[in-house]
């Protein structure tokens, strides 16, 4: 009973008219509104940043998917072209065609293709690039044989990874049917592609700890992958909705859980042009939102501090109304709390990763943290004196922050240097590069009274990552030379100049002779080092504007823009041949190789990319057919230079 009387007496005091009037005063409503707006603003800002990170993640996965698609097309086009050449040979001479002899000429050593095979209409292996087939091997149970036997049409098939019964290695089977002109089934031609070749390439791409790359057939079977995708090789993912969608929408992006660990991922897919394959590239949502999570904790801490300040202020206002007699004491306590809060806020500002600078309507710096001083390059002691913003800019200019001749000044700087700012001033974001190379993102937000709040964010690493991704997409990771995509782009530009200005140029196809022996005798690390040395020597032979590229394996190409006549081009290719075939010292051993060069001139030997590349390749193949290690010119009257030689690999 005593407890109940105490509770009733306290509740009656709370509900008194005086207390109610104090609680519902304007200061209380303003505090509640400020807290609500503060948290809504933080939530909105975090949402915007999350959307930006999500868009960036999708952009990265789309770029990766496009790079992987181009790699798949490059890796499969050459073997498929070889299959079609072999099929043409069988059609022209079914009884006399020798697949083993054909493979020695047509299949480049060290490439993605492991072997060629011909399966007869009865399912038995008839011919192999590895040599005679003894005893007869029944392959009628293989998927790639059954697919072509049971359907019409000339569509290539790409099988899931299988263990070769002849080679004993895991491979992906690229196959085409062989039929007579009347449609009679004569068998299946198969190119066994090294499954590890795709795995190694995908592992070389950095997709983050939770990311993956997956190559899936349209039948739903995974061909190859990296990251968590490596665990899916050979498994069926036919239930993925995006796989069915790729038939009508060849590229897209989705958010989906991973099939192995269930983690949410940003996934982009691309249907491979002309092939029954789909490429998937993904990054884990947790990795993409890592920065957002850190900012959320930081913003929450700042907002909690500000909320506490507002609540304290409201509580003091209510207390002041309740007891006028304690006004003086309450005011002193409020000032003490404000000073303590100010110190806490200053400490908070000095420990965040962003720089913050606030300018009032008179152009005076009223708030600045240490991080902003670092990014501005101005001593903290100077900013502590609360100078004008113009003085800060002048000090930056004096210290060389805008370059020796002010070449690093942004046009946005002058627009936000005159205070008070106009009422129609809008927020702006721009980037500034410091003389040290550091890239700063500057966000300018006008305040209602004509002042300004600036935030400074160090985005150097983000820009460096974007440049690395762009470089990886256009350059060979082993040699640093241009890859096939960049080379074709440069060749297209050269053709445009030739058509508009009449500037001739040359395309040179370079293929190393006996490179496989280097790998077999010295090991693949020595072979990789040899490819880097060859790339270095090719670059040394070229002039300004010329482009050297590695197209794959031991195959290189050169775009010689300065070789505008036969004499200049002849001197260049002889210099290249001498440089590439000179002996190498690798790990204390002497290595000698040969090189076969094919030269095509524009516009004499072709007026398009494919025509010039084909002409140069055919000239190079004629060198190999006539003994290797020489130069052959395309055209109506080709000239052959160089002498056959037997390449050597000697131990030092």
From TrEMBL:
Print the keywords alphabetically. Answer: Membrane, Transmembrane, Transmembrane helix
Q: Which GO terms describe its molecular function?
A: catalytic activity
- GGDEF domain span: 503-636
SMART domains attached to this UniProt entry: GGDEF, PAS
What residues does the PAS domain cover?
341-393
Q: What InterPro entries does the database record attribute to this sequence?
A: Biofilm_reg_signaling (IPR052155), GGDEF_dom (IPR000160), His-kinase-like_sensor (IPR054327), Nucleotide_cyclase (IPR029787), PAS (IPR000014), PAS-like_dom_sf (IPR035965), Rev_trsase/Diguanyl_cyclase (IPR043128)
Stored Pfam families: dCache_1_like (PF22588), GGDEF (PF00990), PAS_7 (PF12860)
Q: Where are the transmembrane segments?
A: 23-44, 267-286, 298-318
Note the NCBIfam families from the entry.
Answer: GGDEF (TIGR00254)
What PANTHER family does its record include? BIOFILM ARCHITECTURE MAINTENANCE PROTEIN MBAA, DIGUANYLATE CYCLASE DGCP
Name listed for the protein in its UniProt record? GGDEF domain-containing protein
Q: What organism does the UniProt record list as the source?
A: Rhodoplanes roseus
């Amino acid at each position: 009973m005593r407890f109940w009387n105490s509770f009733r007496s306290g509740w009656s005091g709370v509900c008194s008219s005086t207390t109610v009037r104090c609680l519902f005063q304007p200061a209380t409503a303003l505090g509640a509104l400020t807290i609500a707006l503060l948290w809504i603003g933080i939530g909105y800002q975090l949402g915007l940043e999350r959307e930006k990170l999500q868009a960036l993640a999708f952009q990265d996965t789309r770029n990766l998917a496009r790079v992987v698609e181009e790699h798949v097309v490059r890796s499969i086009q050459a073997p498929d072209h070889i299959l079609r050449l072999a099929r043409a040979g069988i059609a022209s001479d079914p009884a006399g065609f020798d697949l083993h002899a054909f493979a020695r000429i047509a299949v480049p050593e060290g490439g993605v293709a492991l072997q060629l095979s011909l399966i007869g209409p009865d399912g038995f292996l008839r011919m192999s690039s590895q040599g005679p087939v003894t005893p007869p091997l029944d392959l009628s149970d293989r998927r790639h044989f059954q697919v072509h036997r049971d359907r019409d049409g000339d569509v290539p098939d790409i099988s899931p990874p299988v263990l070769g019964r002849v080679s004993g290695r895991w491979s992906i089977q690229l196959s085409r049917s062989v039929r007579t002109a009347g449609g009679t089934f004569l068998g299946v031609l198969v190119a066994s592609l090294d499954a590890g070749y795709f795995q190694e390439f995908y592992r070389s791409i950095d997709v983050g700890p939770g990311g993956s790359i997956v190559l899936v057939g349209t039948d739903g079977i995974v061909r190859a992958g990296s990251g968590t995708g490596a665990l899916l090789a050979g498994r069926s993912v036919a239930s993925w909705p995006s796989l069915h969608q790729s038939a009508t929408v060849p590229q897209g992006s989705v958010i989906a859980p991973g099939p192995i660990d269930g983690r949410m991922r940003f996934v982009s897919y691309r249907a491979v042009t002309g092939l029954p394959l789909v490429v998937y590239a993904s990054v884990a949502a947790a990795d993409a939102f890592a920065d957002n999570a850190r900012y959320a904790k930081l913003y929450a801490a700042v907002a909690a501090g500000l909320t506490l300040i507002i609540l304290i202020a409201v509580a003091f206002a209510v207390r002041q109304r309740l007891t006028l007699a304690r006004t003086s004491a309450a005011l002193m306590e409020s000032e003490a709390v404000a000073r303590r809060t100010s110190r806490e806020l200053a400490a908070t500002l000095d420990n965040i990763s962003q720089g913050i600078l606030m300018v009032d309507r008179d152009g005076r710096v009223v708030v600045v943290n240490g991080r902003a001083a670092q990014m501005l390059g101005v001593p903290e002691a100077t900013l502590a004196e609360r100078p004008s913003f113009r003085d800060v800019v002048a000090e930056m200019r004096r210290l060389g922050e805008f370059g020796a001749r002010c070449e690093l000044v942004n046009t946005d700087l002058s627009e936000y240097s005159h205070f008070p700012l106009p009422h129609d001033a809008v927020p702006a974001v721009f980037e500034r590069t410091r003389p040290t190379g550091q890239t700063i993102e500057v966000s300018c937000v006008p305040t209602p009274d004509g002042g300004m709040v600036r935030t400074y964010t160090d985005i150097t690493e983000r820009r460096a990552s974007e440049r690395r991704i762009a470089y990886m997409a256009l350059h060979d990771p082993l040699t640093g030379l241009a890859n096939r995509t960049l080379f074709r782009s440069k060749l297209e530009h050269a053709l445009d100049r030739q058509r508009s200005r009449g500037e001739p140029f040359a395309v040179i196809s370079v293929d190393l002779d006996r490179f496989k022996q280097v790998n077999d005798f010295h090991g693949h690390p020595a072979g990789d080092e040899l490819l880097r040395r060859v790339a270095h020597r090719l670059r040394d032979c070229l002039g300004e504007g010329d482009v050297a590229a590695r197209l794959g394996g031991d195959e290189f190409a050169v775009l010689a823009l300065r070789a505008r006549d036969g004499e200049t081009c002849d001197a260049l290719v002889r210099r290249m041949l001498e440089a590439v075939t000179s002996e190498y010292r690798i790990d204390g051993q002497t290595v000698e190789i040969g090189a076969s060069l094919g030269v095509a001139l524009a516009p004499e030997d072709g007026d398009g990319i494919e025509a010039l590349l084909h002409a140069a390749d055919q000239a190079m193949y004629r060198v190999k057919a006539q003994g290797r290690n020489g130069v052959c010119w395309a055209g109506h009257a080709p000239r052959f230079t160089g002498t056959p030689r037997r390449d050597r690999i000697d131990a030092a």
